């Protein structure tokens, strides 16, 4: 049977692997040797799952959105990752990786962040476990996700504003890798998405797979069947999508629809639609689709959403797209904004700008009335209120 999981060499089809500088070789090898052993151990599983339950508030609800369903002519369930402690799915991964770091004897934690949700999640877990935490964040994102910067500081993390490139997620990741190269022995790098060298994409997907594990159980309770017709999620690096689809990857009854950030439009030069625009290349230690020019120079991406503003994509998702297991749609800024206001006014849920891209893809699919759709709301929109308010009059009529 065809499988979409990682192979023993760390590849998903043509994508993945670990393309790292010599100085990080030992750290990445150590991680590779340990992550499965630790993640599968009873002791880790018990601590991880009790924190997910008692600290994060899992399982997150699977909510039948009746008015949204009427609008799109099908049955839409929302997987409410926005209701997790700290406001997004990122906390699932942060808890898992910090628990692993502790077991590997690491004392210092570093992370990159775009929208600030992964930074907040990592700072939160470090506060809980009494560990030092440094978060790299592009200066553009520091400004557009100000509330999350303040949360990280309150939690005791040091936030380093990065001023290279266009000062967004790619640049923050570059700086985090540079820090890791300077402190390879005592520092653990908590990557926030299914990107980076193997084993990160697989490890992050496994830690987030609690999402699809819960969807299976919850759908069974609600609908008497454990699979939907469609699974939908947004993709920046790909972690909420990986978690949403993990237990359905090989179930061909389930259609996978992923939404990437079209920005101002895929053809405008102001876009982060990596699957549509990217070519095979290497970014942050992984062979994947990368937005690049003819000389292989990485192109600066653009999206209204800091969490999707990235010129690469997880190798798992590059493989799912190139093997046609997943349909990837580009959703532009204006479509995401419209979808965010629609959800807010129909269901009373303010989604994160990232999640709004998944919602924006609903209008691009022709559903049948009996189609069962599960869409992951990866985070809540509190951090995006300033941006939303700028567009209030344009997208609402009352
Ligand atoms: C709420 C939310 N959703 C989605 C993403 C995109 O990341 P990923 O593709 O790893 O889920 C982010 C990234 O910051 C985010 O904050």
From TrEMBL:
Q: Which NCBIfam families match?
A: trpB (TIGR00263)
Designated gene of the protein: trpB
For this protein, the record's PANTHER family field holds: TRYPTOPHAN SYNTHASE, TRYPTOPHAN SYNTHASE-RELATED
The pathway noted for it is: Amino-acid biosynthesis; L-tryptophan biosynthesis; L-tryptophan from chorismate: step 5/5
Protein name per the record: Tryptophan synthase beta chain
Q: Provide a GO CC annotation, any one.
A: cytoplasm
Species lineage: Bacteria, Pseudomonadati, Bacteroidota, Bacteroidia, Bacteroidales
Q: Which HAMAP family match?
A: Trp_synth_beta
Q: What does this protein do?
A: The beta subunit is responsible for the synthesis of L-tryptophan from indole and L-serine.
Domain of life the protein comes from: Bacteria
Pfam families found in the cross-reference section: PALP (PF00291)
Identify the keywords attached in UniProt to this record, alphabetized: Amino-acid biosynthesis, Aromatic amino acid biosynthesis, Lyase, Pyridoxal phosphate, Tryptophan biosynthesis
Cofactor(s) needed for function: pyridoxal 5'-phosphate
According to the record, the signal peptide region is none
| Catalytic class of the enzyme | lyase
Q: What is the originating organism of this protein?
A: Phocaeicola coprophilus DSM 18228 = JCM 13818
